[in-house]
Amino acid sequence: MTNSASESISLRFADPGTAKRYPLAVSAECQWQRKGETWLTQIPLPDLAAGSILAPSLSVLSDEPYGFQFTLHGNGSASWPLPDVPRQAPSPEVSNRRVRTALDCFHLLKPLRGASLEVICYCAQQPTRYLLVISQRLVEIPAVCAPTAEIHCQQAPPRRSQLLENPRIASRICSPISTGMVIGHHGHNVNWHSLLRDCYDPVTKMYGMWPLAIRAASVYGCLGAVELLSGWSEVGACLAADIPLVASIRFGKGKLPGAPLSASGGHLIVVHGLSPNTALVNDPAAPNHGSVARSYPTQALAEAWFHHRGAAYILLP
Fold first, then answer.
1. Is residue 98, in this structure, part of any structural domain at all?
2. Contact 56, 117 (CB under 8 A)
3. Could you give the 3-state DSSP secondary structure of residue 162?
4. What's the total number of domains in the chain?
5. Strand partners, 264
6. Is the pLDDT of residue 2 over 80?
7. What tens digit of pLDDT does each residue of 121-173 get?
């Protein structure tokens, strides 16, 4: 099975209770096996198309801190590890003619068949409440059709501007601020200092690593996943379940009318409402809390979001 130009494929694994609550279809439970002081599961993958991106994420509810690592294995001896999450030391990106690793995903340079993903969870006890998602799609896809219905969360998420945080880091924290707005929407009091700390990668000094955001949300009891979306249907399913999405977007100068940024090579916002013409969002790049709530043209947001990667954080209450 390989991706067409307009579809994404996600393999989802969760305990039965989490599977019932997640707004998108879950495949099965994980078969965890003890490996020394860690827990391991191996997931066979469908055929991976050249030009596609593979993004895994793991979320665990645990009384103790946990970590994890993903390694993509080819059908021979080749393997490509992603950095440990969280990590304390540099780890080189790995690239050859078939696969290139990034901070939080794999890029397929050539087709890969018969591959599997090894997931190692660093925790004392076997994960019992967890969500593992392995999402794949082409890096770039054509424009998508507008949604046909209007749907929105029961109420808008709390609003917070990243620009009112520490000025030394304010321009770089759209991921934790967006994540925190969704956590707050789900009824939790956010400790913003701790959330920023938990989303910080000390090696790159970045706050935007996808797996760190998902792990940080689990501290509040919010299991979550990174999904690579290709259109509005999954967005609608989440909004119908009163789950706002954190959307990873990029857009050229003037291409997203109403946005506080004139252009961005990578930014995260919260999407909480949708109609054929307009999307309701919280954009943390607004200059103050009161101006965070925005409405963007649906088609312009689709181009900014789905055209390149289509990444989203989906966090459960």
1. yes
2. yes
3. helix
4. 2
5. 251
6. no
7. 999 999 999 999 999 999 999 878 889 899 999 999 999 999 999 999 999 99
Residue 170's nearest CA partner among 284, 264, 36 is 284
Given 106, 138, 170, which residue is the final one in a domain? 138
Residue type, 94: V
Residue 48 lies in a domain: yes
Q: Which domain holds residue 233?
A: 151-315
Residue 3: inside a domain, yes or no? no
Give the tokens for residue 22.
Answer: 């997640």
Q: Rounded to whole angstroms, how far apart are CA atoms 104 and 212?
A: 9
Where does the chain have alpha helices with state H?
A: 16-21, 174-185, 192-198, 210-218, 232-240, 298-305
Give the other-Cβ count within 10 Å of 299's Cβ: 15
How many degrees, rounded to 5, is the angle at CA 216 between CA 212 and CA 218?
Answer: 120
Give the contacts of 19 (CB within 8 A, at least 6 positions apart).
12, 26, 29
Same domain, 194 and 299: yes
- Tell me the residue type at 306: F
The alpha helices in 4-93, defined as continuous H runs, are: 16-21
Same domain? 180 vs 245:
yes
